[in-house]
Design goal:
globular, 25 strands, 22 helices, GH13_cat_dom, Amylosucrase, O16G_dom_2, about 35% helix, Alpha-amylase family protein, about 625 residues, single chain, binds alpha-D-glucopyranose
Length: about 625
Amino acid sequence: MSRLSAEWTADIRDVLAHAGADVVIGDPAFATRFHAHFATLHGLFRALYGERDDSLEQLAAVIAAASTSWRARPARLKALDDERDADPDWFESSRMLGGVCYVDRYAGSLAGIREKIPYFQELGLTYLHLMPIFASPEGNSDGGYAVSSYRRVDPRVGTMDELAELAADLREAGISLVVDFIFNHTSNEHEWARKAVAGVPGFEDFYLIFPDRTMPDAYERTVREIFPDDHPGAFVQLDDGRWVWATFYHFQWDLNYANPAVFRAMAGEMLFLANQGVEVLRMDAVAFIWKRLGTPCESLPEAHLLLRAFNAVLRMAAPSLLFKSEAIVHPDEVVAYISPEECQLSYNPLQMALTWEALATRDARLLQQAIERRHALPPGTAWVNYVRSHDDIGWTFADEDASELGIHGYTHRRFLNDFFVGRFPGAFARGVPFQENPKTGDARVAGTTASLAGIEADDEGGVERVVLAHAIALSTGGIPLIYLGDEVAQLNDYGYLTDPAMADDSRWVHRPPHPTDRYRQRDDPATAAGQVYAQLTALIRARRDTPEFAGNALIGFDARHAAVLAYQRPGTDAASPRILVLANVGDHAATVAPPTLSGFGPHATDIVSGTALDLSEGITLAPHACKWVRVTPVA
Ligand code: GLC
Ligand code: GLC
């Protein structure tokens, strides 16, 4: 096989010949997009795999798979492609609202999820992330993040046909289906893993398997331990004595993306999922996909090239699909994954973590600084803002940002961990430690929003903190994402401790089954569920009707009060009305004084309650209160 030449035009004919030229030119729509994206894909392939003898052959196979996949793409999805093409900013609308749940825990099955569509509409969802639903090992499968087949749904929840039908039903209801693309690793039961261990030709290099400890020891000098409770370091030993790379659980083996056959194989799985009607792929663990000796093996430049290459393949064959990045890393690295050519969407772990930080410290300054400094994104992209996810909370703020405010990163993280697991005297939080590492002092925190915010501890600010945290996620810009059940204040579920497949993973404390009783209480103002639900749905309704909440533009605001987070969401121009968001993270009432508001005309409106405000009197916020106020700048 020839190598990819520097001049992509020179060997394009070879690639097309390999792919079977007619598959490419046969369909005009595909041909147009092929020509628009092939140069990019070729360049990325050359950068990643140019030195390998099989690079051209694998690139040709990717093109062939894309072309075949386009032909098989259902007409309704091609119509969706056109629709999105005509409205590329669709996901930046203020109507967007996400929900996330485990299929089995929340609804029993895919059929059960379909029955919940009326509820999703009641809540206002336009985006539904179903946690992993693919075939995976019995017992512990990391909540399905150990995938044994990307083409088979776990038979306990349904079938692939049902998933495709559900995607169509959801779309009919105005809801985009989001599923995980777990592409850093597979389970050890995946066919590729079995073949790799058995040395089946073509599969030997699908994973990173080493005969002895030499290379593992060398790599482990510079890589982090992600799940130290499961195994130290990044490798686990096979029965035959060899060692395989496993960043997460011992049964989750990292794929070897230095092998273009792995890229080709995963691109095929991605295209398959795209044709089931999935609209967003949540790109799991993006930071880990490329390894190089002597580095942390996280967020290496090649990780970005790989994502861009996957993206280019999609642009050819499933153009409406979006990528959402899951990078829970330093904020500089999080934004590096976000661009129209890479991941159009991304979790916002910094805002999430610092919302909790502000609630614990009753001091909004670190969150204020992050929102002013680290919120901006390139056009054509959006944050996914969440209060908590199915994972632990890690304190991913930048030490350099914190030190500007006189905060020491290491000791502050220790404080936050102590606070949120209830070890700090007087703490309102009832979280549980996750992956405490005695070697490094590192730890993360698990817990539901309600339990972390004080409802479990019967703290009087509990309900308001839950609402406040969501009010921030709903108003900074991007797609807000609710962990379903949190809108009715579900509490920690300690039942996982009695299930051996879950007991060692404290994240199960915040993945309770469907909280049916609390849902029944959602209209009862005497319950925490009812109070949270009423206030949260009022915010959701107000947001939907507020065009200033679309997009990502945000301007800071100095409320001159350490406990008050403040920012503005601009209108169409500098003179038009805008939304001023004020959030009091403190335990005492806080007043934003009249002179502080003097840049706005006196007549303002609280857009949630609809009441008029006179800014010449200042604005007083009750403890843990948030206000969304439409103000008009004075000329
Ligand atoms: C992601 C998932 C997490 C999982 C890990 C390994 O971080 O969110 O739940 O444990 O990937 O797949
Ligand atoms: C680590 C990883 C993150 C993952 C989490 C799961 O923090 O960086 O990707 O979600 O572990 O617990």
